[in-house]
Prior knowledge:
Blueprint: H1 25-47, E1 52-53, E2 58-59, H2 96-104, H3 107-116, H4 147-168, E3 178-179, H5 180-197, H6 200-207, H7 217-230, H8 233-256, E4 263-265
Antiparallel strand pairs: 1-2, 3-4
Amino acid sequence: MTAPTQGPGRARIDARTLRTDRWWLPPLLTFLGLTTFVIYGVIRAFMNKWYWVGEYQYLAPFYSPCLSEVCVPGSAHWGRWFPDLGFLVTPPLFVLPFVLGFRLTCYYYRKAYYRSFWLSPPACAVAEPHRRYTGERRFPLILQNAHRYFFYTAIPVAAVLTYDVVIAFHGADGGFGVGLGTLVLLANVILIWAYTLSCHSCRHIVGGRLAHFSRHPVRYWMWTRISWLNARHMPLAWLSLFSVGFADLYVTLVASGALADPRLFN
C-alpha cells in the first residue's frame, strides 16, 4: 500500500505515522458525536408524538414543517400536503432528505465523516487503510457536487423554523408571552441561519465571478460578512447540530409532560 508516509520521493517508513500526539482523539469524538445525533434523529423521526405544545405554540424542529394528515391539530401551519402513509412514513421524512442532503454534502461535514467513519484519512500525516482513492468522481460520492442545490432547499427550511419562533412568542392566554422554550427555539434558529449562511456555496453565490468588487459595493459588503461567518463554519456546524437536537428534545419533554416550561412572563 502506498501511504502518505511512503509516497514517491520520500523515505520509506513502515510505521503508520510518526505523530506522537493523540491524533486519534478528534476523529473519535467526531464519530461519537455524529453517531449520537443519528441515533437520536432516527428515534425521533419514527416516534411520531410529543412534537407540539399547543398551549405555547412550540413545534419541535424535527417535525417542522408538519405536512402530513397525521399531524396533530395546530401543528400543520402550512397545510397537510401528504396523506397518512403509515408508521414507516412519518412527517419528518418529507423534509428530512433536504436537510440531510445539505448537511451530508457540506464541505466541513465531508471532512468530518470521511475521517471519523471511513478513515480516509483518519488524520493528517496518518496512513489510511484504503488501497485506492477515486475522489468524488463516482457514485455515490459524485452526489456531493449537488451541495449548492441543497443549499437552495436549506433556505426555505430555515425560513419555516423562523416562522415557528415567531408564533412561539405566545402566551397561555393567547397573547404575547415568552418562555424558556421560546428562547431555546430562538437560539436554535439563529444558529441554523448562521450555519446556513456560512456555507461555502453561499459565499460563492454572493461574491463569486466578480472581477471588480469596487463595481459591486453591495455584493462586496455581503461577501465580507459571509466570509466572516465562513471562517467559523466548523464551530457553527457543531453548534447548530447541537442546538437543533437540544431544541427538539426540549419540546419533546414539554409536550410529553416530563418538563414544565418556565415562563418569563404570561
